[in-house]
Amino acid sequence: MLGKIALEECWTIPQALAKNDPGKFVATGTGDRLTRELLDIHDMRIRQMDENGVDFMVLSFVSAGCQGISDPATAEALATLANDKLEEEVMKNPTRFAAFAAVSMHDPGQAAEELTRCITKKKGFVGVLLNDFQSSGPDGNTMLFFDQPEYGPFWKAANDLKAPVYLHPRISSSLIHDQMWKGRPWLDFSALGYADRLNMHILGIITNGVLDRFPDVKLIFGHMGEHIPYDIYRIDHKLDRARFPKMPMRKDKLVQDYFGDQVFITTSGHFSTPALICAMGEIGAQSIMFSIDYPFESIPNACAWWDEHVSVNQHDLVNMGRNNVLKVLPRLTEKPHNLKTMTPAECQVGGLREGQVTYGMYNEDWSRRLVKR
């Protein structure tokens, strides 16, 4: 499929590498490659995009970013530096790149100000990305969660600016790591811990009524929904209003009802067709968008899966691969990006290619795929 748009694509600056070595998150011996790919935007990254039908990427500051810094002033300064640098890089090629802003979440008012600065004073920003909870306190073990009332100023800014909020996982605090994961450290990261921590935070935001108070807020999260689509029946089944009468979420809604309106997922780092089909069944294709998770995941692997192994109708494939993004992030359709929706034919999905012949109801390529399967 041509014209794909990817949303959970990481980038960093040299100043951040000194505080957070990305090599500890990948296989031994591959840290140097990862560092090069995180720092690069216009060379290896765009070459792989061109080779794999990726038209556009929305870039974001690598996890844990500002959320991993427990000192407020340092976190705020890093956000400003990262945003200024990312805008500079995006504007070198705005028809291929946009950005999610980084913010420190120590002070909700200051976070709102930085988000407002990025959206209204700068070019290239289309939303904001938060890396789960904010580390705080003298030892970094205090965790600040954004579903609490004091974060109203931030959510109001996101609502008024119509700036979608991408929620991304991060490493655990040292205290939580020692208490929960020390005896099984391999589970603390992307295999389990990332999703299990973040889905609690996401569900906290929804059930604490944030989306009801701020109806123009849109949440996005990756990895095929951080386990939530698979569990959505049980989540709604067990949120018994008689048992939890003080739960602030609207009394006439289920968690499932927010998907496709205010809540959306991406396929980043989760290239499983059965998982995608499950998500489509539970939350609908209109709630799902393609993404990669580069450079922690491979652009060719993600695209080969999407282009060759996702067996859904061409309209859903193209909408999830491109068009849904333009509804959730409408700033991408404006200057300086000027992206447009595309038809399956424009994306080279479906139809017959020159030289193909048909066998009954299937074209030649699809017939071979059926035999192969």
TrEMBL record:
Q: Does the keyword Transferase apply?
A: no
Q: Which GO terms describe its cellular component?
A: cytosol
Question: Which Pfam families does the UniProt entry name for this protein?
Answer: Amidohydro_2
- Where does the source fall among the domains of life? Eukaryota
Q: Would you kindly state one Gene Ontology biological process term found in this protein's UniProt entry?
A: secondary metabolic process
SUPFAM superfamilies recorded: Metallo-dependent hydrolases
Q: Is Lyase a UniProt keyword of this protein? A: yes
**Entry keyword set:** Decarboxylase, Lyase
Write down the InterPro entries for this protein, in alphabetical order: ACMSD (IPR032465), Amidohydro-rel (IPR006680), Metal_Hydrolase (IPR032466)
Could you tell me which residue ranges the Amidohydrolase-related domain spans? 43-298
An example molecular function term from Gene Ontology annotations: carboxy-lyase activity
Question: Which family is annotated?
Answer: Belongs to the metallo-dependent hydrolases superfamily.
What is the protein's name according to its record?
Answer: Amidohydrolase-related domain-containing protein
